[in-house]
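User: For my dataset I need records formatted as: sequence, then structure tokens, nothing else. Please produce one.
Assistant:
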Amino acid sequence: MSDIPERRRTRKRRGSGSFASTQQRDTSLLGILRDEPKFRWALAGVAVFVLVVAGMLPKVWITSPPGFMPVVKVSGLDLLQARSLRHSAIRHAEEGRTSEALQAWSSAIANNLGDPEGFRGILRLANGVEKLEQRWIGPTLSQAGWLLRLTGTNEADLELACAVYQKNDLHDTVTRLLGATNRVLTPQGNAILARSLFESGRMEEFGNVWKKNEAQFGAFPELQVYRAAWGAAWGPAAGMQAAAKALAEATTKPDLATNALRLQLSVRAQRMDTAAFDETFQRLQALRADRITDHVRYWLLLDFIGRRQQAIDRARNYVTPPQTAAEAEMLLRVWARLGLHDLAVDFSRTQMVAFQNSSQLWLLLSRMIIAGQKWDDVRTVAVELRNNQRLSRFLSGYSYYLEGVAEHGAGFSSRAEAAFKSLLKDPPEDAMLAFEAATVIQRLGYAEPARQLYRGLEKEMGDKLVFWQQMARAAHDTHETALLVAACDKAHQLAPDNLVLANNHAAALLITRSNATEAVKLTLAVLNKAPESPIARINHALALAQLGRHADAASQLDKLQLTTLDEQEQTFYHVARLDCAIARGRVEEARREIELVELRYLFPPQLEWIAQMRVRLAPKKA
């Protein structure tokens, strides 16, 4: 009996052991995976990886400075890639692989447009390269502008960007950025400013900057050459000979020779010494250092001294393509001056693809092609502007102006009108471009679209005399009386001593028959200074007649020879005679005069007055 409990305990233990064993050795996949420590670690790793990736991909990190537009947002992955690319760019540059370094910097910038370091890196590299590949020039200049937007008033960045601008002959940009009177510059900044002032021909300002910073400039040997050039042609007469000698000595020094010869060209062009200019030019060519700038200066000198054909021949034979937009602009301007519009057409067909994002070049090119009356090419430029995503944002409307000019030139006036209507829907944002378009359209005879363009420019150009003069012409052509009076009044206010504007103001007042006293005052002042002017005397007579001084008005008209007047002058002569005849009760004379008035020259208020006079002069029914 004692064996039985023992066996029971054994079975119990075995049963218990069997149960425990079953729990530890669960053969289901979930059980195995749940109980395996390595799997749990792997699962945790995957979870962490997913979280990290999820955090790296969304563009949630703002890297642009506060208030910067557009806001630059990047992802964590962008930041890592930008960092890696920066290191690659530095390594490529150290190993002399400039193109690869520029590409790496550009890629780093593309990954993080809000990081100034990327822009600084590529600008430093570009500024240190002797001759930058053409394909990098445009992007580098754009990156300089973006850096200035990012860092605002940072002096080091400003000087870096201006150094790049100067290297690419954008001297006007440099002087605009550095030349503010309230800006305090470092010695390097002053040196950059001085060079660009000289290169842009602002010699008086160069002299002032030099005088103010002469002590600082001793550390810049190249700038001393600029000073010598300035002194040789633009400085005090007493020092010109010594300065010319110093400049000549600089042309013999290997490290200064190229720039010294270029500056010597400027001096000899200023003195109009063609023989000496040619000698220096040949030395520069021997060094293979002649630039488009130097050739253009030679052509302009030849043209100025009367040797235009030689200048034209040299310009036509020059085949080196421009490398920068500034050089291309220089070529287009000198071609325009020499009347070489066909070269502009060739340029648009063969070379413009390298500068397709330069709005200034497209504008210059379109004007030259219009001047050359190549209407198919003008249409092509218009289409190019609309298809260029970067330029179409602000030149789409201008492209319709070009299209309209081309259609008008080709003899399709209805198509031109349709194009000008499209222009009105999207006028150029730039006020001067819109003004240019309005002026040309008006000259071509499309007065109404021109008037509408002018009306949209009053806020931005209302302080400019030329604007009100053009506005007055547009109002005159469309016979819009109120606008004509306002425009003539504004123009006269801006130039009160101008006799033509005073006469126009008086004429506008006479149309409305509303202020005869002021009209008499204005016309008398004009007549006293221009007594031989027929229209001045006619306007004075009209003003006197409206004021009720009909005898004096008739006396003024008696001094005129009717046969010497043009058709429009004759019309207003007869209007004045009509006014006098009616006032004096001379009905038959008035009836003769009213039939001699050409109604097409009259404005609505004048037409209404003529209609009233016809009723008054009509024979009474028996």
